[in-house]
């Protein structure tokens, strides 16, 4: 078959290969293409009158801007945004577990009951001004001879960012404080050192106040202006760090239930296959995880716009559904006052990949969350303490979104990509799932799993989901991801910059 | 004398040392302190009735919130914001040049007539997604054996940032494009490589379109998704970089007029001495530089609030004065819609250092610009092509402001600090000027010059200005700054994040 049709109510189909004008589509009673259709783009399989909805996934993905004849390429030249929605028939489902599925992984049990998938020592910075000092301490401990003293430690890593001063104490300050507090107690850290400059807006003492007692007690702190500058702080940091590394080096992996996994879900560089292959397969893997008591974190709020009805229909309560509404309302205001539009979120790469509207992107994006009950909705970087499918509010932009997910407690990230992202995160490792085989074959060294084989007919979606779940368990137990092998993640830690920079 | 009085119209004086309650001030006819006054904080030397202006530098720095008796500590408990201003008596002045002042430095003359103070090779990234690849190429070329092949090259440096996608094409996009375009043609780069991912909003092809022909022609470009991923791009980048390094290695310093210097002015971690020692001394050094045809860049627009009348009075034309008004109006809107206040800009460190209001901070801050004619007002990261004193709009936040100054063409930064900043920038080196001796003595290894000696009575402001000017000439000619010796600057490159992150 030259095309893939996702439901019998759809009036567009997806081109499996590039279709030239006049090519006949036998699966659609010999319909002839009226224009060239690039691979993975949409072709109309019924005529759609101007103003009528364009239907894919049994949902509205846009409205015809002109009369569209059957056989025409459907994209942003003839398909635009609409407010029309179709209420979903599906409610929350409980997944049936595959036989012999793993229910535990090898993790680091922390004092507070949280479990790490890695055993790093972290250096948390309250402000950009302490970033270079933190980095210098990281570099000292990255030397082979020094790192070799602590074989059970995955590394000393500086968590640096670009903010912490030049700001008022408003929404942006609170957000950054949550990020710093969340990272300071991240389960993938065996210990943390906190470093400030001294005169910044986000004061180290305020961060300490925001931490639980046990974390505060086991944290080392340094203030550059008190130490007497760059060199003195680096020297003091190197000395104090040895104790944190020694303690962390005594820890080892033990069997832990998968209910201790919190998986941050992400897509980046989406294409038209994201919603057909990688996202639904990842969603099914999340159904397995949440059935076993684990947590799936769906974020990228602007990419839920147009799919919110799917999530609200399976909220644990009206309160949870209302929280989602509140966040979407916040986003409309945030976008509006910044002169931005939520409905033209698809990036140039998304569009080239065949995604026409944010509705189409969103319907594909929400599939990552699976079909279980939406148990909670939390703010960016807010600690997640409920299991099941939780929404953590964030932009769609990958590094900013994953940073919030890690600060909220994600100890693993699953990242689907169509155009070929080379993203990586730390301290939580990031598994990259390719949506299509051509990209996978071109960028194999960056991809952890090829979901394109679902589209190729080489594996069922169900079997791919089990493969993804098993990859999660292996990576959580210590297997390195491609991005970890490349050493990516230091420059990708990016707290969401909200509010005025002064 | 226990206090310093800046003009005979002032009703407050600055405490030279911490003053205990009941201490007598002989220089004010035996006035007794009515409360403890911390060092560098203000003491009332006349009684100030509630609602009356508090005067320092012959200007309004605030309004009395209560009746203030002579001898009382004046700070944010009894002094608040006001809209009152005193029109300045001073117009633009042309500086008298000190005898035997240097009129040239040793710099790198580029093909376009611009002159570098350093000879780096740059790697410009269009998006965060290409940051790690750029860093890996930098790291390869940082190895002693590789760097050793290019003794005339100061290093290969990756210019990475956190944006480039997850955004609409609005104000924030245009700003980031200016930053990328400005850095691509920075005179401190002998050559540049441009690296993108492929699917991002800020496309490499659009950046190339924004560059002058000669820069575009001598730039190498790489797109990760075209190359086939992380490893392939790093390998291709390492190979292509050799050519850039070889070409840059053929260049050497030659005598160049100081008119080719563009100095970005900055304060960070200001205290009450900033406006008394380092800033006016730096301003006098800028008067020398601009008299010789060089350029001084004053920025930190929120810290001009309250001192705008001083600048408008010496604008080259009404158009230039209007441009400043326009930027201040933009700032009021930006702060307002983000729920921020321009008038509480002083950070905790500023306040601890004795700065009470933004007016007081601003009056001290604008002194960095000297007393010459304000020749132009440009947007953040907009290329500066006029000489003299130019305002480049930016936040006060150091790394964000300096990033814009460098993108606008600053080939050197002068940074005054009271609390003790450990800031550094690259590719433009950053000279740090301490405002007070206690901080200088504590953080000597981070400070390039101690302006505290002006306050101590060990050097005149005039002589300190000449010392600063000579330090600028030496550093422009290759002498390393303290922050360069510490290797600071990679994590401090921060384009201003304006607009919604989507
Ligand atoms: Ca994303
Ligand atoms: Ca295959
Ligand atoms: Ca060299
Ligand atoms: Ca500043
Ligand atoms: Ca001295």
TrEMBL record, chains A, B:
The keyword Hydrolase applies. It holds the Pfam family GD_AH_C. InterPro entries: GD_AH_C (IPR048332), GD_AH_second (IPR007392), SAF (IPR013974), SAF_UxaA/GarD (IPR044144), UxaA_altronate/galactarate_dh (IPR052172). Residues 10-80 form the SAF domain. It comes from the Bacteria. One of its GO terms (biological process) is D-galacturonate catabolic process. The keyword Transferase does not apply. One of its GO terms (molecular function) is hydrolase activity. Belongs to the UxaA family. Keywords: Hydrolase, Lyase. This is Altronate hydrolase.
